[in-house]
Structures are given as C-alpha cells and as structure tokens.
Amino acid sequence: MTAVTSTSASTPIAANRATRGPGWIRRAIAQLFVGLILVLLVLAVIYPLLWMVFSSFKNNSELFANPWSLPGELRWGNFERAWNAGVVRFFVNSTLVTAASIVTTTLISAWAAYGLVRVNVPFSGPITGLLLGGLMVAPTVALIPLFGLLQRLHVYDSVWALLILYTAFRIPFTTFLIRAYLIDMPREMDEAAYVDGATRTQIFWRLVLPVCRPILVSAALLQALFAWNEFAFALVFISNTENKTLPVGLMDMQSRLLTEWPVQFAGLTMAALPMIILFLIGQRQFLRGLTEGMGK
Amino acid sequence: MASTTTRLRGLVWVVPALALLGIFVYYPIVENIRLSFYSWNAFSPNPVFVGLQNYTDAAADPIFWRSLRNNIAYAVVSLICQVGFSLCLAAVLEEFVHQKLRGVLRVIYFIPAVISITVSGILFSFIYNPQFGLLNRLLGAMGLERFQHAWLGEQKTAIWSIIGMSQWQSIGYTAVLFVVAIQRIPRELYEAAKVDGAGAVRSFFSVTIPMVREMTTLLIILTVSGAFLVFNEVMVMTAGGPSDSSQVLGTWLYRNAFLADNMGYASAIATVIFVLTFAFAILQILVSRRRRVEI
Amino acid sequence: MTHRNRTTALIAVTAAGALAACGGPGTATDKTSAAPQLTASATTKEGTLSIITKFADPKYAPYFEKVATAYQSANPGVKVDLQQVGDQPFKDKIRVLSASKQLPDIYFSWAGDFANKFVRAGLAADLTSVIGPDTDWGKTFSPAALKAFQYDGKSYGVPINLDAKYMAYNTAIFDKVGVTKPATLEDLLSTCGTLKAAGYTPIAFGNQYGWPAIHFMTQLNAMDVPEATRSTDYNPATGAFTDGGYAKALEQFKQINDACFESGSNGLSHETAQANFLSGKAAMHFLESVEFSGLTEKGGAPADLANNWDFFRLPPAGDAAGDKGALTGAPDGFMVNSASKNAALAVDFLKFMTSKENGATMTKDIGWLSSVQGTATAENSFPQLETALKDISSANSFAIWLDTVTNAEVANAYLSGVQGILDGSQTPADVMKGVQSAAEKAKKSVG
C-alpha cells in the first residue's frame, strides 16, 4: 500500500552509522555538506517569498534604499490599491474556471476510460490511439486556428472558451491516468454487479467512481495545477479585464502599475498567499492524493 | 458477440471525449498546417498562398534557430536540475534526514510549485532588477560587485535567468514525486547492497536509480515536452527580449502572429513545435515499450 | 488488419473534409460592407458604445473615465463600455481583437502606417464627411493633427492631443556644472562628457520595451535623411532604406549611447529612468510633452526638479542632410470601427470628447495639449507646456514615431536592432541589413 511515511527505521542524520568508526571525519563532513545544501535550499525557497511579503509593505524609496530590511511601517494602502486593480477578481475567475474544468475533465475522461476498459466499444483500438494521441499536441500550436473557431461558436472572450479548452486539452492525459488505474482493477467486482442486473451507467457512478477515488484525486490536483497556471489561451482568448484569470490579470496589473513596485508586490502576495496557506493546511492530503494514484 | 446496436451504444462512452478532442485539438492541428502555407495576418484583405515559403523563411531566420536553441537549453538544464538533482535530493531526504524533518522539508521545497508561474515570473523579474533586486544586492553584500548584471536586460544572461527561475519553481515538485517512487523500493534491496559492502553513494547508483526508472521516464517526458512548450515564464519576464535573445518557439510564434502581423509564419512555427513534440513523444513510447518488454 | 485500414481511411476522409470545408483565412468577413451611417438622425441617443484605449496608466486613465461618465449622464440612454489597457499590451491586444473580428466601436490608434493598416483592411470608418478639413468639426482641430490621420486624401482618425518629443534638462544641475543648452549634436555629446565627469548620469534612459530608443531614431532619421526619401521608405509598398543617412543616424545614436547613457539600458524601464531624472541623479531625459505634467509639482515631482527644468529639441549634427527643423511627434487618436452598428453614436461621443470644454479639461487635468485649437490657456497649463505648444505650432514638419509610421516588420527590425546597438552586439551596418531585408518582406506582403 502506498504510504507517505517510509518503512525504514527512522534515523536521525546518519545515526545508524557508527560515529566513531573508521572514516567518521569524512562522514561528518559529508553530513555537514549535505545539511548545508538542504538549508541553502530552504533559504532559496523561503527568502524570495518573505522578500515579496516584506516589500509589499514598503514604499518606493524604502524599497530602493533597503531591500533587505523589514518595512518601516505596515502600509496596508498598497494592498488596497492592488485590490482595486482587480487582483481579487482575477483570483475568483481563476478559481471558477479551475474548479469547473476539474469536474468536466475528470468526468468526461473517467467516462471514456471506463468505456474503453470495460465496455465493448467498436474500434476501441484506434479510438484509444486517438484519445491518447492528443497527449502529443501542444496548446500553443492550436492558438491561431482556435481563433476563428471560438469566435464562430460565440464563446470568444468568455470563461466558457477557457473551460472548453482546458477540458479538451487535458482529456488525453487524464484518460491515460484513469485508464491505467482501471486496467489494474479486478473485473470480477463490476462483472458481479452487471450479472445482478445493474446497468453499466449505474456501475460507473455507484461502483467505479468511488473505487477510483485515489486516481481521480490525483487527476483533479494535476488538472488544478494546469488550469491555475495556464497562460497562452487565457492571454489570447479573454480580452475583457473583468473576465481575466490570474496569470493574465497579474501581467495586466503589472503594465498598469508601472513603477508602483510595492503595490505590485502586494498584488503578488495576495495572489500567492491563499495558495500557500491552502497547501500548508492540506499538504498531507495534497501530497498523498497527488502521488497515490500515480504509483500504479 | 453482442448485437450491432449494443456495440454501437458502447460508443456513447467515448463520444464526449472524442468530440471535444476532435474539434478543439485535432482540427486546429490540421488547420494550422493548412494556414502555414499562406501569408496572412489580422489586417490582410486576402490571404496569399505561398507554399513552403514560411518554412524556408523559418530555416533562414536566425531568431527561429535562436529560439530553438533556447528551448533546447531549457530542456537540458531542466533535465539536469529537475530530474538529476531532484532525484539526488529525494534520495538524500529519504536516506539521511530524520523522519519528522523530512516531512517539513518536503513541504517547504514543494511550495514554489503551488504558486502561479506568473507570480513567480513577476517576483523573479523583481529579484533580477538591477537596482533594487535581491540578486544584485546579495552579490554586492558579498563583495562580488563585478558579477552584478542587468539579468533580464542583457542578451547573454536573459534566457538563463528565466531558466533559473523555472528550476526554482519545479525542483521541489519533481523531488516530491521521486520521494514517493523511492519509498516504494523494497528495503531488502538496500540491505542486500549494504551486505555487499556498498556505501550510500554506491547503493544510490545500483539500487535507487534503476528502481525509480518508471518515474524517471515519466518526468523526463514531462520535463522535455514542458521545455519545448514554455511560454508563460518567458512572456512574463522578458517577452522574448532583449533583442529577441530570450525568444523561445512559443513566444516567437506569438510575437509573429500578434506583433509582426505575420500569422502564416507563426503557423509554420507552430507546426514545427508540433512535429518536435510529436516525434519526441513517439520516441518515448517506443523506448518505454521496449523497456517494458525487457522487464 | 481491415480494422485499422478502415479507421485510417475514416481519419483521412475527415481530415480532407475539414480542409475542404474551411475557406481561406479571413474570408469570413466581407470587407466591402457599406459605409456606416455617421450622422445621428434620432434626437434621443441610445445604445452601448465599446471603446478601447491604451491609457490604463493611473496618471491618464481618470480623464477618460471622466469623459465617459459625463457623456453617460448627458445621454441617459447610452452606456459606455470603456476598456483601458497598458501601452505595451495594447500592441498585441489590438491585433488579437482585429483577427477575431472583435474590434470595439471606438479604438485607439497611433498615427502612421499603424493606422493605415486598419484602413487597408477595411476596419476603419471613413470619417471625411464629418471631420474633414472643410467640416465644422474638422476646423476646430490643428491642421497638422488632422493631417496625421489622413490616408489617400481621406480622414480616418480623430486626433485627441498634440504630442512631441523633447529633451528635458535640470537647469540647476546645468548651472552647477556650468554647461548650457546644446545647439548641435556635437555640443550635446561634449555636454554629456562634462556632466559625466561631474558625477551625473547625463541622460536618464531606459529602453526595456524598445520604443524609447526608437524615438531617438525617429528624430535622428528625420534630421539625417531628406523628407522625400523618408516618405518613400516609410511606405511599406516602396520601402528600401538604402540612403546613407540611415546608417549615419544609427552611428549618431551609438555615440549618444556611449557618451550619455548608463550601461544596461535595455534592462531598465522608461519609467524607472524617469524616476532617476526626477530624483536629480540624471541631468537630462528624453520624453514626450504629454509626460511633462509628471515633471510638475502637481504631477508629483519633487520641488527641486519641478522648479528647475526646461527643455530643448534633440539638436541636429552640424552636417545633417535631412530636415533639421523636423520635430518628432504625432497626435494620439481614435478610429471608428467600420463594422460598428453604432457608428453615429461613436462619432457623437468623439465630438463630445474633443469639444473645446473637454479639450481644456484635458490640459488642466492631465497636462496634455489638446489637438483642439485654442484650448491651452495660462490658467489650465503651466509655462513649459505653453512653450511646447508654441514650438509644436512652429515646427516645419512632424516626424511620426518610427515604430508606428512604418510597417510592423520594419518596426520590429529597428526595435531589436537598436537594442543590439545599445548593448554593443550589433553595428549600424548589421542593423541596416536587418531593416532592409524587413522592408523587402514588407513590400511582398503589402504589394
């Protein structure tokens, strides 16, 4: 079973190696070296983020004069300006599109994966090939042709455009994940239900989806990471500031708040902090969910 | 054999996925190839058929090759850091670090991955700011003034600065995935290696690396294809400048389509990206299929 | 296997069908639509107007919001949907909108080939009947401003301001160091040397997006290359750029860079450089007259600078072969979407925006010179602005920004080439080669 904790005996750094045996100096130096690197990495991760938060309370001259220091006073006004520049709106738009695309992608992919693995679908070979072949297509490649298409469908400049695209382009990967998981699932379970008279659809909703939870969670989290960061489509297909998602909105904000650096920092902080806090709260579930399904 | 209607009904399962893929993924590919044979833009009254001209233009375009080289540089560095270094980091975490500390470090290292790439991009463009940015100030504080640069403003350093930011963002992410893979390695293998007299480094090479092969393959695919598709970071930090020195295929495509009024050419670049990622994916499939047969 | 062959055939057929079914790119629009109705006949105005501007800068945005709100109050049946984007993002945004046929009713445009593109594509409404030089409305504008938006003898754009590029200088620093306003380019270079020796940055310059350098090139090209040659070259259909003056201009820019700029200017934004000028670290700064308000106390500049600055035109070299009296500048303007269903309403709104009253408000609120004559007075403007107006009115000819007067390929070749000059990776000869081949390409795509 996939457990997040290791099965090896927990060891403080090198405790299971004798501290006095031959070559202990070399080992101690190695430990020191490794420890140093680990600490440096921690600093490399944390310091830029701390700097971001501190700078958002400063004003321009303080920022230029003393980038390291803690801010002189807490200028909440910067946050208010960033708020007014629309950061919250962008955040909300991103959340909506991400959440919606998680639902649509996971459902449609699971639906297709189940069909391919359990149901006798005609042409299943080529169809599988087609579905998975989409893995090789890059979103950037589709940019220009999608223009005319989205516009003809009257969804240009609406979150629907992003929803459709985020779903369509992730179906191959998600189907691939779920299909791999399903293949390993024993047939007897749903064959038994089928014999008992349940329809395939009922089996899907009541039996398969719940059993697939680990992989569905993994897929959902990966989808979230993708949709949250997606930039090219959001840049080209959303034009009204009201509808922009976070990545594009932040760039927009940057080009408007040209030299108001602290306000930009405030905007960045407001955009990053919720995600970090959410992650810290749910990190065990997140990391487990991300990896459990992928272990197969 | 079920009746034809039952069999056809089976299609219901795959129709939604196929429809979405067909319309929004496959159709654009085909259309894109077709568009690459024309010269046109947002303002052209009549698109002009130019055959392979856009492709010959690309072959003769130094910036096209510059972009390709930048993508390759991206891929190489990402492989070294996000696969090579991450694996070492994961191994170190699993082998040397105390259990409780391990969890904390894992979480800390992973944090950059949950921040939007745009946020990191803008944050790092501030870190790289020649006047008040962290990096130059840090170098100054250490007495290394002569290493100070306008990181994003100089041709020699721009793309590397962006690549650096990308590693910051993703090393923790791949390290965590490797940790999971390492945890699945049966302890007996390590015991056996120790009995044979292998030290930490030897067992890393003889046990760890072979046993995480699947995860390694997956991450290689993700990293390399990600490197060829990169767009967000570059767009946010330099938009391809200065002097087009940090262009990657994705941004060069965008620039030609939406700033240089040259969409046919952009479509040609898009087709090249498609062919490259397609070829790489096929290669990976062939390699992994062969490997699976071996095991 | 027959299975696979059948499927392959299916895919092939679908693909072929897709290819056949689509028309060529861009055939969906009918470019020969009838000219829109421009004069409103109804007494009550109603509808929704969509506008896009490039004035998201918090210094300027409020003015446009004010005008939009005022118009809505005066015409309750009308809703104005104002979208303001930043200067740099506007450049790709407008193309995305054009390509997707989503152009708003009213859209901002720079003068020159940038505007002419829209005209050639049939996206700009012909406004000659309402704003031509002989119409009532047309007569309220400064003739040069109106001319900037004419193409083939017809008027397509509504100019809203007058703008020219000047070198502002800190008079206190100049006095302290003992230098005076340079009259020639050679003088400027030696002034820079003196200033540098005294510990100042001679000219504050940041070229992050490339256009600040282009503005220098606009002035240098104008002074080194005769006007007739320039108009031929700037026209994409006939551009060649073979005159020796162009390379000379680049050479002069290189000299200015070496003597007057700090290194690393490609990584600095124009606004950051301006901050250096405001704080007194730099002695000079090349900027547009629409930015003058930022150098006043009202605009937030420190008193030391606000009370001690003046400006001059970038001086020509002693042996300049072009138009020594040319001034870099162009009006900003708006165009009307020819496919707009509210063209008459749009025209009415633009008339409102360019009324004498609103023109005066523009000068008072954000310090821009309006293109409407007689709007700048001693009350609503400051001394330097008045001087600028006089200077602009007396200019021989205007040199429109090099990156909007030429077509996009040539503009891009110049933009990236000049960045190369700044960091020393390209020589003037390299850049001219790039420009010449871009001009060749442009000829093919336009002709």
UniProtKB/TrEMBL annotation, chain B:
ABC transmembrane type-1 domain sequence ranges: 68-284
Transmembrane segment boundaries: 12-30, 72-93, 105-128, 158-182, 218-243, 263-287
A matching Pfam family: BPD_transp_1
Protein known as: Fructose-amino acid permease
Highest taxon of source: Bacteria
Localization in the cell: Cell membrane
Family: Belongs to the binding-protein-dependent transport system permease family.
CDD domains: TM_PBP2
Topology term for the membrane: Multi-pass membrane protein
Endpoints of the signal sequence: none
Gene Ontology BP, a term: transmembrane transport
Any one cellular-component term (Gene Ontology): plasma membrane
Keywords: Cell membrane, Membrane, Transmembrane, Transmembrane helix, Transport
Major subcellular site: membrane
InterPro entries documented for this protein: ABC_transporter_permease, MetI-like, MetI-like_sf
Keyword Cell membrane appears in the UniProt entry: yes
